[in-house]
Amino acid sequence: MSQPTIESILQEKRTFSPNAEFSRDARIQSIEEYQKIYDRAAADPAAFWAELAERELHWFEKWDTILDWQPPVAKWFVGGKINISYNCLDRHLTTWRKNKAALIWEGEPGDSRTLTYAQLHREVCQMANVLKQLGVTKGDRVGLYMPMIPEAAIAMLACARIGAVHSVVFGGFSAEALRDRLSDGEAKLVITADGGYRKDAIVSLKAQVDKALANDAVPSVTNVLVVKRTGEAIDMESGRDRWWHDLQQTASADCPAEPMDSEDMLFILYTSGSTGKPKGVVHTTGGYNLYTHMTTQWTFDLKDTDVYWCTADVGWITGHSYIVYGPLSNGATSLMYEGVPRPSNPGCFWDVVEKYGVTIFYTAPTAIRAFIKMGEALPKARDLSSLRILGTVGEPINPEAWMWYHQVIGGERCPIVDTWWQTETGGFMLTPLPGATPTKPGSATLPFPGIIADVVDLDGNSVGDNEGGYLVVKHPWPSMMRTVYGDFDRFRRSYWEHIPPKDGKYVYFAGDGARRDEDGYFWVMGRVDDVISVSGHRLGTMEIESALVSHPAVAEAAVVGKPDDLKGESVVAFIILESNYTAGEELEKTLKQHVVSEIGAIARPGDIRFSDDLPKTRSGKIMRRLLRNLAAGEEITGDTSTLQDRSVLDKLREGA
Ligand code: WT7
């Protein structure tokens, strides 16, 4: 593992303090108050979390042990009985929130739906009974391949209610990617829709499911439950496929939540690692419930009057933790929007903010850069005065984009919460608390109370102020991933072995480079492994390379990221062809399309470069660092002494 590849040259000095009026009404009102909570939590993290778990969540039975830490195995609230669907739904029904909007949904074509807590509870119970009727029992895995419609959240909560483990696969992934994930998790049931709307076109989800399951490719799947969304014609395989609305008609709305062990698996979500196939990140119940609950409450300073909108897709962890579980556990109103800015309606996000009076808006730098490109006129034409907090996640936000967000969207009055976290962490790790933390554009600021974060070198020693190093977490936290599904050894290797334990103390290795400034603020610099961040989503280079090599024309492929104004990074593929193929535009197109059908549009190479050779070390490892320089059109500055054949670089440069 090399040092972080991104040198920190950023020296941002601007600081923005929360305004007095905002702080006065906030849950946590000053940096001193944050520091007090932080110090208390750091002194005894387990006691800190136990106090909150007791105060904030409903437990059917209390735990015996707060934390059982046998590195790298953490168990939280051992012996406790809990159900996250109960905490998200049932407990609100005995309060005035019973008829409060739980989900406000806006479809891309302009249709909309609001579900109160009582209505959402009813539909979740019905779907839970349907799952039971289809033979799904506690511990079974259920694959979800859904558009952004309320039924996606309903299906997740229904699984949680009966103790089934959901595995949501992003609706933009291809049939092949879906098949791999369903196989790895040995899903028993798949929940999908006929189709969904994206950028004024229909995405035919059910057809992709049919393709994924063709020839009995995933023998564990016995049924497919289909929600009618677009009404397009689809094939329904008799005996296997069932319409959700048919089964709902006769499904009882009485389905008590199953008391789960705190450590029972809640869901699997696949994420890219630097090598090999995607990792099935496993999250469990009690700790995840508590952590997403607390981070939503404090980072977004939740109030009962808030209309909270996270623009992520439920197919990502952001959708899991901060559209569904965190907000609903708090009894908040969570807005779900099916659409994305598109040529026919580039200002649609601001229409949604205005229409529903959104108060908290949480999105990604890639979206912010797209807004900037579309111009100020669009947001300026709408009334955005309801907004009071803005959030960002997914990749480092550059200070100028931060300033634009602050000025144009936030009207200079909304604190920006830049939240650093990962699929693996379950919830926010570094984040401002909006009434307390002075923000600096581009910094995710300080750790959430209870999180002991640091920047270290490869020996695990803390580096000095403003020195680059590896971002690590030094104490277990409730929503940390528990394992890679079916591969505990990979979990250990990926996260716990890069930095050797010191005096028996294990640290969690996040895979990001970072530095800490003189005020203790964290500046995350990006991934240090071979992972490309496209629109804030991690794509493993290995996966894209494998997809390319699966095409008969490709002998060898190396994939790197190249800085991209809009997407953060775009995919550049270096290709060595089999001898009976010739390079050219036609083949370039074919290969791009091949990646789309193997993985999905998100992984489409922006650029394909044909070559006779690739820069390799003497041991045969492709030197991606050099390819990254080439792709970005930069000078090659780093060490090339391990390179087997220097002339390869010159040839590649000439060919560019
Ligand atoms: C990686 C995790 C967590 C939901 C979205 C992506 C990068 C995430 C930030 C931020 C700088 C960030 C990191 C991290 N990242 N948030 N606020 N500042 N970098 O989830 O796919 O698991 O990716 O996204 O590199 O490791 P993910």
From TrEMBL:
Keywords for this protein: Acetylation, ATP-binding, Ligase, Magnesium, Metal-binding, Nucleotide-binding
EC annotation from Swiss-Prot or TrEMBL: 6.2.1.1
GO MF terms held by the record: acetate-CoA ligase activity; AMP binding; ATP binding; metal ion binding
Annotated positions binding CoA: 198-201, 318, 535
PTM section of the record: Acetylated. Deacetylation by the SIR2-homolog deacetylase activates the enzyme.
UniProt enzyme class: ligase
Domain named Acetyl-coenzyme A synthetase N-terminal: residues: 34-88
Modified residues (N6-acetyllysine): 621
Residues involved in Mg(2+) binding: 549, 551, 554
GO biological process: acetyl-CoA biosynthetic process from acetate
Organism superkingdom: Bacteria
Domain AMP-binding enzyme C-terminal: 543-621
Cofactor: Mg(2+)
InterPro entries linked to this entry: Ac_CoA_lig, ACAS_N, AMP-bd_C, AMP-bd_C_sf, AMP-binding_CS, AMP-dep_synth/lig_dom, ANL_N_sf
Assigned GO CC terms: cytosol
Function of the molecule: Catalyzes the conversion of acetate into acetyl-CoA (AcCoA), an essential intermediate at the junction of anabolic and catabolic pathways. AcsA undergoes a two-step reaction. In the first half reaction, AcsA combines acetate with ATP to form acetyl-adenylate (AcAMP) intermediate. In the second half reaction, it can then transfer the acetyl group from AcAMP to the sulfhydryl group of CoA, forming the product AcCoA.
Family listed: Belongs to the ATP-dependent AMP-binding enzyme family.
Protein name: Acetyl-coenzyme A synthetase
Species name: Zarconia navalis LEGE 11467
